[in-house]
Amino acid sequence: MSKISKLCLGMLFLWVWGGKPLFAELSSIEHNIKQRQQEIQYLKNERRDVRKLIAKAKKNEWGVTEVLKYLNFNIKAKKDALVELQQKVEETRSAIHQGKAGLVRLQRRINVDQERLEQQIKALFYLEKVRKMTVLPGVDSLKHYFRNQRILQKATEFDLQLLSRLHANRNLAEESQRNLDRQSIKLKGLMRAEEEQKELLRFEKDQQVTFLRYLRKDQKSGLNKLQKIQVQVENLNDMVYSLEQEKEESRRQKTFRGFYKQKKNLPSPVSGTLKRTFGKSGSLYNNLFKRGVLVATPEDQLVVSILEGKVGFSGPFRGYETLVIIDHGKGSFSVYGNLEEVYVQKGDLVNQGTEIGVVAYNSQKESYLFYFETRYNRRPVNPLRWLKKPYWNKNDND
């Protein structure tokens, strides 16, 4: 079991060591930051353009609304004009109807006058025949003659009046018919103009309403796009912040100098009694920890980092309960084993003295045992070379 645990721990160190170099160049991070900042600027410019389009759409919508109001006013005025025109149309129709009725009456009078003229002609023809039958003039015949002459004169005067009236009525009938024809033509023109005007107004109103609907749709689309851009900007801001944090961590890691030059200068990770020194072997259990030291601690003993660094591993590890490995740079690592609770995660940056966990209870030894190990360039080294004196109470009894 000890060989397997030591092999696994060695492989764990290879994995931590072979990970991302501690002193990697910051150029890639700076490049990513610059690229994200350019993307943010592009999105900000796009957001500004979209806002301009939205403002323009609102302005256009206001203008169209005013046009629609003006158009509605014109439509109302023209509707009033159309109502007046329709009244004139009705008046014209009534006049046409009355004119037709007048023509009928005139035609009747003309027919009556024509009948009277025919009767007068027949009467004149009869009187002419009587006059020719009077051979010898006498007193009675003279009276009859003069009476006939007066009748003829009166008949002639009446015939002239009748003819004049007949002629006037015919002229009036012809003029009335021409007026009716003109009114009918005017009526058709007015009705056609009315329909054309109505159709034109409907078309213009539909066009304006359609355009207004398009503007509102375009404005809504612009607002949706603006919201999406805003979300992208926030995401990129978070990304840039993360990259800045990564850059700061990388810059800070670059200052890690390791503990090679810190001999007899580092604080102890725990307080307690030294139970197993570095490199000492013996039982199978002791062989498991010969690469480091074992320290018996009080209950609830906090474990602190001996130097600033970056957590390379934090989690359960067979044979060591929960294990934490901290990379201090320059090939320097510290290992903290047999922990019950840990307060750090992989990737965390810690300072000297940062609390990283609590020592676990060892049921086999019936005590709280803390395992501590230091490595330099992958090789285990004696932790006591780096810790200040006094570091632990010595008690080498197993």
From TrEMBL:
An example Gene Ontology molecular-function term: metalloendopeptidase activity
Matching Pfam families: Peptidase_M23 (PF01551)
Database matches in CDD domains: M23_peptidase
Domain M23ase beta-sheet core: 290-383
InterPro entries for the chain: Cell_wall_metabolism_enzyme (IPR050570), Dup_hybrid_motif (IPR011055), M23ase_b-sheet_dom (IPR016047)
Coiled coil segments of this chain: 26-123, 226-253
Alphabetized UniProt keyword annotations: Coiled coil, Signal
Name of the protein: M23ase beta-sheet core domain-containing protein
Organism from which the protein derives: SAR324 cluster bacterium
